[in-house]
Amino acid sequence: MKIVITGGCGYIGSHIARALRLQNSKNEVFVIDRERREHTLGNAAGYLHTDFASKSSLMWITELEPDVVVHCAADTMVGESVTDPAKYYWNNISKTETLMTHLKDLKRKPLVLFSSSASVYGNPVGGQAVVETDLKLPISPYGVSKHVVERMLSDYFDAYQMPSVSFRYFNAAGAGIADQIDLGQAAGASHIIARILEAKLANKTFTLNGTDYATPDGTCIRDYVHVWDIARAHLQAIDWVFNKGNYCAAAMNLGTGTGISNQQIINYVREKYGDFLVDTGPRRPGDPDRLVARADVARAIIGWTPEHSTLEQIVDSAWKWYSRV
Ligand SMILES: NC(=O)c1ccc[n+]([C@@H]2O[C@H](COP(=O)([O-])OP(=O)(O)OC[C@H]3O[C@@H](n4cnc5c(N)ncnc54)[C@H](O)[C@@H]3O)[C@@H](O)[C@H]2O)c1
Checking DSSP bridges between strand 2-6 and strand 290-291, what pairing results, if any? Predict the structure, then answer.
């Protein structure tokens, strides 16, 4: 398999690159990323550090003739997308259209695996775990951008027979697995587990955003999925398409069905790693109360179930990464 990963120097993309390499040393992985993050290098056969929609990227893809393009590159901050939507419509939608239109005109159309997001569902009412057929009412420009690209991929399959799988990741967290402590998220990530562990290790105060959500302890509830489980899903989807002949445009949740509140994470870190200072701040714009997924479709179709995604597995692996010497 020849696989191009856009955003492959990012958190999730670098884990997918690693998983593909470990799965089969004959997999040839190529990364396009405008950033160069040293700790992510070494997982691919080639790197191009530029914009994924640039001429040089598109030419490189033409030359490589990939079987698969994993499209992880995007701007990813929900709050920022509310205050600067233009950035998100441009990077996440317009440039993705440039990429997809280029791919559909290639001699051999690759399978596209797209990093979509739980944010396509917006703020689901009723608090039950979301399923794929639920209404998609994104409440941030970031969520809209993921929803539009999913639709684009579905239309591109109908019209141009370009197969794709959109994975609606819920909250990716954790790092590496087992003894691999060389791969994790870059410093300064905005999600809560990263912020708690970084604050704790630096002896700084952690700010808990929002304690007045409509949840039992007042803090946001999210569905955390270990980044390694997310990476595994991409491998399983490639098998499902190429070895089992499922050429279509599919979309599926990657979640655990278990909601964990921000307060529960704080409590776990305190119990396991010791106390740290917490103060409370305002809600972040665009943050729903509770977002938890059922992943029945991923289970039924590609045979995916989370294996590394308990709170303990996630926090402990992230702790190893953040506290490495
Ligand atoms: N982390 C999560 O919990 C989560 C949840 C749902 C969806 N996602 C999606 O998964 C994908 C990966 O997320 P991540 O957490 O690894 O983010 P990340 O920021 O670590 O990685 C994204 C990478 O894309 C690169 N990039 C962005 N725009 C680019 C461009 N125009 N050209 C080239 N490179 C570009 C960035 O440099 C970065 O390395 C994103 O599409 C994100 O929206 C992430």
Answer: unpaired
- Mean model confidence pLDDT for the chain: 95
Of 163, 126, 132, the residue nearest 147 (C-alpha): 132
Which region holds residue 32: left if phi is over 0, alpha if psi is between -120 and 50, else beta? beta
Task: For ligand 1, say whether the CB of 76 is within 6 Å of any of its atoms.
Answer: yes
pLDDT in tens, 156-193: 999 999 999 999 999 999 998 767 778 999 999 988 99
**pTM exceeds 0.85:** yes
Q: Whose CA is nearest to atom 11 of ligand 1?
A: 72
Strand partners, 4: 30, 69
Domain with 24 in it: 2-174+225-255
The total number of structural domains in the chain stands at 1
In a domain, 61, yes or no: yes
- How far apart are the C-alpha atoms of 44 and 223, rounded to whole Å? 30
Q: What's the pLDDT score for residue 178?
A: 66
